[in-house]
Amino acid sequence: MIYFDYNATAPVMRQAREAWLEATERIHGNPSSPHAFGVAAHRAMTEAREKLAHFLGCHPLDLIWTSGATEANNLLLHHFAQTLDAKSEVWISAIEHPSVHDAAKHYFDQRAKLIPVTYAGVVDVEWLTAELADTRPGLVAVMAANNETGVIQPWREILAICQAYEVPFFSDAVQWIGKLPAKGLGDCDYLTGAAHKFGGPRGVGFLKVPHQSRVQSLLWGGKQERGQRAGTENIPIIVALLAALEAREKQLAEGHHQTRAEWKEKFEKLLLRQVPDSTVVGTGTPRLWNTVSALMPAGGQQRWVTRLDKAGFAVSTGSACTTGKEEPSHVLSAMGYKAGQVTQVLRFSSGWETTAADWEALEKGLVKVYAEVHHGK
Ligand code: PLP
Q: Which of 102, 202, 242, 277 lies at a C-alpha separation of 20 to 30 Å from 64?
């Protein structure tokens, strides 16, 4: 079975597993305890915070550990709901992950406004610039790279525009971190990430906020994370997050992702040639080296996913599909794809462990499944 669903979650890498085991065996204390065990736990957590701050380029106290990005995104929008005045709007891109979109709608309802994207899946910077000249929202949120299409967003440019208008800028960098260098992301006022997308354990992530401004905890009953996130921190998974990130940053510095981008590009060319009427979403625009979002002809998403599963490939539909029903992708809808097309999308997302041979096998698998679904077998 070959795994092509890394954007959903990635296998825990050896370095992270070893770091987790080592920390589990060595560190027994609660980081809030005053005795030597607590001090040792606190030290390990502080070291991890400093290392993450170094990779992102921010102050260590800007970082709050969370259970993942869903919590981090909710914590941030909850914070803005508590602190903005009753008239302020938040502007989020139309392609945000549901943990940003739904939290924004929950807290701000009609005051959560969607920033449109182009047909290529990139946030419409011209629209944003023109709107900002007129109105100042309380927050602008644009993810760093999209989880469905892999399309890279111009977050640096948008950050600069927001700075010029003195509007706080937030980026959900979940799909960027570990796939592209983290350097510079810490310049964003607010940032979120999750370990399990780049080879760390599930259940740990972070929120970056300027340490001068305090976030109100979503939970009650503890003063952890300087009163911003109640609950005992899980030191082994925090340490493992860092072990994974260090390993990924090293691979990135050595340029290993460039070869992987070539494998993916070769796959896309073959797919378009071998599977008639297939379309690759977001071509011609910078995308993550690991993600291919494709509209597949004939058969329907679930049929493709099931057939590919039987043929030995784990792939996903573009959008979260928890019910097993075909769900239209809100990302493709926002990009202007038609109703009939948005339920045709499949996502192939590779990881650092994926080989050139895996991509070749997937291409052959798709040709085989196409022949089956095309002939109604
Ligand atoms: N943001 C993006 C862009 C994602 O892709 C995901 C996960 O799919 C999340 C947030 C949620 O992350 P977590 O699984 O850590 O809650």
A: 102
Q: What pLDDT band is residue 300 in, cutting at 50, 70 and 90?
A: confident
**Which residue's structure tokens are 């709007």?**
89
> Which atom of ligand 1 approaches the CA of 143 most closely?
3
CATH topology of domain 2-9+255-374: Aspartate Aminotransferase, domain 1 (3.90.1150)
In short, whether 278's Cβ falls inside 6 Å of ligand 1 is no
Whether 2-9+255-374 and 14-251 share one fold: the answer is no
Q: Is the CB–ligand 1 distance for residue 137 below 6 Å?
A: no
State whether the beta carbon of 200 lies less than 6 angstroms from ligand 1: no
Q: Residue 319: what pLDDT?
A: 64
| CATH architecture group of domain 14-251 | 3-Layer(aba) Sandwich (3.40)
Q: How far is the CA of 172 from the centre of ligand 1 (A)?
A: 8
- What ligand 1 atom has the least distance to the C-alpha of 205? 15
State the distance from the centre of ligand 1 to the C-alpha of 96, rounded, in angstroms.
Answer: 10
Q: Where are the domains of the chain?
A: 2-9+255-374, 14-251
Tell how far the Cα of 207 is from the centroid of ligand 1, in angstroms: 13
123-179 pLDDT tens trace: 999 999 999 999 999 999 999 999 999 999 999 999 999 999 999 999 999 999 999
278-285 long-range Cβ contacts below 8 angstroms, 24+ apart: 281/121, 281/149, 281/332, 281/335, 281/337, 281/345, 282/120, 282/121, 282/149, 282/150, 282/151, 284/120, 285/120, 285/121, 285/122, 285/151, 285/152
How does 14-47 read in b/e, with b if 16+ C-beta sit within 10 Å? ebbbebbeebeeebebbbeeeeeebebbbebbee
pLDDT tens-place string over residues 63-84: 999 999 999 999 999 999 999 9
Does 143 sit in the ligand 1 pocket, CB within 6 Å? Answer: yes
* Residue of the CA atom closest to atom 7 of ligand 1: 8
CB 174 within 8 A of CB 194: yes
Q: Which are the catalytic amino acids? A: 321
User: How many whole angstroms separate alpha carbon 139 and alpha carbon 91?
Assistant: 6
Percent of the chain with pLDDT over 70: 97
